[in-house]
Amino acid sequence: MLPPSSPGARPSMSRPRALFALLCLCAGACNPELGLAIGPDASSSSLDCEEPEIPASGDAGIGDAGIDDGGVPGAHPVVIVSIDGLRADAVALAPADTIISLACRGAYSMDAQTILPSTTLPAHASMVSGYTAEQHGLLHDYMKADCYIEVPTVFGLAEEAGLRAVIVVGKQKLVQLAPPGTCDEFLWISAGDAAVVDAAIGAIEDGFDILFVHLPEVDYAGHTSGWMSVEYLAQVRAADGEVARLVAALPAGTTVIVTADHGGHGTKHSEGTAEDRTIPWIIAGPGVRQGTEIGAEVSVMDTAATAAFALGFALEPDAVGRPVDEAFAP
Ligand SMILES: [Zn+2]
Fold this sequence. Notes:
Blueprint: H1 17-30, E1 78-83, H2 88-93, H3 97-105, E2 107-113, H4 120-129, H5 133-136, H6 154-160, E3 165-169, E4 185-188, H7 193-206, E5 210-215, H8 217-225, H9 230-248, E6 255-259, H10 274-277, E7 278-284, E8 292-293, H11 302-311
Helix pairs in contact: 1-3, 4-11, 7-9, 8-9
């Protein structure tokens, strides 16, 4: 067990005001009658968000094809969408209507935490493996030829289980998450979020059991214009639109997880501040509770474990990530 101060250890958590803002937005997004005239001061709203009326499907631009809200985990395809650099509180502020709607139709934490270092390659390695940075060994954050993650990933485990794993990323360095033989298809798309989603939609048509989709442009906007700047929030809305397009293309019964590798502050994210580490974590799909705020601590490492659970297998016992049980109906 790691000491609390160690990188990768689960941090203690507090509930940010942004969570309440999201809850209020949830009620609006899921109830068109309520309207959605809620801005950055949404935390002052007095909407009762504890018992939102949630439609079965098809709202806020999400196609009916993507998510079947019934059924149980296992034997269903899973998509992990990582929006690079998406701060949790940006979801409500942008607002990212599709992501909010997914949260309302599923379970979510707006207080999930990424690992240290809060940088792209190490955090994604933890996201897709369930291991700490010390365990997975990818502590650098740049392209390094012939260097690969040293622990099993959810993709490799899926392959061993006879499942089809497909990875579509917007940054070349993420190839280090996919050692040869651990996925059926790896696509590096350098032309931005829309091109990544175009490629992912093509991959969906070929079939998959687990699909990883990485959208790079929110992070670029943070580095260029600053996290939470007008430009950054506009990019969050654009990425949200790409998520809508992706979800609409998914087969019924798909479990969707939307999260991020890190947040950011100023024009950086590597210092491990609360703004750097706090990320959204949202899941919707078969057997997932609807409109549920996850009370338990959620780590980026839990992404791999939860995806594995939804697919019907488990990570290795030494992985730190755990399935987010609270997200699923008993
Ligand atoms: Zn990143």
